[in-house]
Amino acid sequence: MINLTPEDVRLKATAHSKKDAIRQVGELLVNRGRIQPGYVDSMQMRETQANTYLGNSIAIPHGQPAQRDLIVTTGIAVLQIPAGVEWNPGEVVRLVVGIAAKSDEHLQILTNLTHVLDDPAAVQALVDTEDAQVICDRLTGKSSSSSKGLDTEGFDQFFDVTIDAPTGLHARPATVFADLAKSFSAEVRVRYGDQVANGKSLMSLLKLGVERDGMVRVLAKGSDATQALNALQQAVEDGLEEEEEVAASPALKLPALELESRSLSGVAASPGLAIAPLHRFHRTKLEFAETASDPTSEQDRLRDAIALADIDLTDLYTTIKERSGKAKAAIFQAHREFLADPELQQEALNQIPPNHSAPWAWQQVIETKAKELEALADPVLSGRAADVRDVGQRVLARLVGGGEAGSALPDHPVILIADDLTPSDTAGLDPEKIQGFCTAAGGATSHTAIIARSLNIPAVAGAGNGVMELREGAIAILDGDKGQLYAAPTEADLAKARQAQLDRAQLRDVEQQTRFQPAITTDGHRVEVVANIGGPAEAGPAVNAGGEGIGLLRTEFLFLNRSAAPTEEEQYDALRQMTQALNSLPLIVRTLDIGGDKHVPYLNQPVEENPFLGIRGVRLCLERTDLFETQLRAILRAARGGYIRIMFPMIATLEDIRAAKTVLESVRAAIDGPPVEVGMMVEVPSAVLMAAEFAQEVDFFSVGTNDLTQYLLAMDRGHPTLAKQADALHPAVLRAIYQTVQGAKLAGKWVGVCGGLAGEPQGAMILAGLGVKELSMDIPSIPKVKARLRGASMKQMKRLAQRAIACRTAEEVRAL
């Protein structure tokens, strides 16, 4: 038992800040010979990581476990501050109990303290007393107060568990328990012997005095009682994050950037942080006459301009492909296909006679085509009008001269503000000069955003027309991670942002240096981190970035931007190149996923009113078995020389997966192909709801969070208005993934995620906590996700995941 005397208490103290109060109570411990002076710094540091405010004007500051060697002997000191001191916003402390504990001798003091917490009169008596002995007696149990128990009527759901933490249910594990319980709407009670505590109240839990190996019953009632009990049972079994484990966990993550200045909010289109003057993007206005006297000459001029524009696009495609991969460059190949459309060219040529100019004729046709696309009901297709105008502007620039996006840009670092940027505008930006950009229109899935990410240019899209009213030249902060533009930041916010940039740079260095280390959590669980790729050229870079294989090969690259389907030999050669580059690492090949917004002219697909609910993915393959069988033969041949798994997209019914497997087995038997693991994409609600049944049919699942989000929320992720709401961190999506994992677990199968959520560090942690075993992402995200996973424990991530699925909105999840 600790010997607490009046010499350990300082009455009628004053403190101008929390830091000052901790310093004073620390000095009491030093003067009494309990600690070395350095432990006071540890107490201050602890306060930056955990809240030591208990409630009812009482706080219990203490040091970090790593500095326990600075404790001479266990002791407690008390600082009475009648006027109070602000501990945290809205929290005023009048009794500071400083703790220096070498082991668990202080726990009885804490138990006695908790019996005071729910008695305001007793707290006030300690704050008002002029006799230090009164405080000593109360904290050592020589005087006590009665407490009223809680009933458990109606709490029909419960579980019993043993608390095996070394010191029982003391402050830290009780805090973890209470915080987790608060994330559910259900009421929670904890019974220990004949005492009952409110599971959401730290003080109430501490008052139970649960010792090591104590058996408690946790009860709940309410709409989410089952989820609450599951999460709490898992948390208790995981040890409730004992202090020693948390202290040993390196926190490898970016510090949160919380700024006070007002901001414009948009969509987070490309991650990163930029600080630079604002510069309004001015596209050169192309002037031309409507008429011309020589129609033949004008037609020749138009043909020449189209040919030169095609050369420009070819060069741009090659540049982007070498810099960022074939998938990112594909938009410019599509621009070339549009430009080569003979009907388009002929319409423009026909507009010239008898006396119209080539620029006028070309613009008329382009604008007509763009408006036709804008009028389509499908928002993804209507959004492609911007690409049509981009191609049109390129030809006009060749006809008239000028019009290059970069010609009017400054030669010093800036943040661009614009109504919108075309893919060509963005591809021409110099990342050394353009630190970031913010557009009034656009979304995170636009071609402009994709190219910005490939250039590592932070970007915010869809911020509204207010963007164009901002003052040029003003220093601004652009946060591409949160989708915020701070147009008039304070000096304090600028200082925070500059420090955050330095921290990011240092973290990126660490992530790159450690990218080949496996993603093993601090408590020894491994999460496989692999890459999404779109062609052979990306296999090597994926491995070099730290990828442990390929979780998604989009085979569409073999079928797009050509006039006929690829041969079996072409497909085999491409797959063989990838297996050689991977050198026995796994390669998951997704069979052809055409349809929706991917249209292939030579397949002669009929126009569908809603192509996203039409013939796409495996549905097309089962209709066109000639294409399907050719692809499967190529895959099986390549599997003889590499570790290949096959995955079928857009599976909605058991009939879908069984039919696809039947075709696969038929092809395999015909060519005596090797056995391969078979998986399926989980992209539609039916696959989630019947996960247990589907798990009997396949070897693994891979959740496509992009499609699952839009099908589950009925929101097109490419829609300019709905893009902000189509968030894969919505609790409905997370619960669907959790349900998929549980269904797979019944059959002993594993679940991966290959959608965009896997590449977000926060999303990756939640997914791992939900039980996802493999995370597949774009190549640039691999080092940072692996680093984040290595810096956390699986216990922490499970706790985070359970809190996430208990949230009600995506905003609540992101706030975690």
Summary tags:
eight-stranded parallel beta barrel; 31 helices; kinase; EC 2.7.3.9; cytoplasm; Histidine-containing Protein, Chain: A; alpha/beta; 816 residues; Glucose Oxidase, domain 1; eight-stranded mixed β-sheet; Mannitol-specific EII, Chain A; magnesium; globular
Give a structural overview.
There is one protein chain. This protein has 816 residues and is an alpha/beta fold. It folds into 5 domains: 134 residues, Mannitol-specific EII, Chain A (3-Layer(aba) Sandwich), CATH 3.40.930; 92 residues, Histidine-containing Protein, Chain: A (2-Layer Sandwich), CATH 3.30.1340; 115 residues, Glucose Oxidase, domain 1 (3-Layer(bba) Sandwich); 109 residues, PtsI, HPr-binding domain (Enzyme I, Chain A, domain 2); 298 residues, TIM Barrel (Alpha-Beta Barrel), CATH 3.20.20.60. 43% of the residues lie in helices and 16% in strands. It contains 31 helices and 26 strands. The strands form 4 sheets. The protein has an 8-stranded mixed sheet. The chain has an 8-stranded parallel beta barrel with strand order 19-20-21-22-23-24-25-26, surrounded by 6 helices. The protein has a 5-stranded mixed sheet with strand order 1-4-5-3-2. Strand 19, helix 19 and strand 20 form a beta-alpha-beta unit. It is globular and about 105 Å long. About 2% of the residues have low confidence.
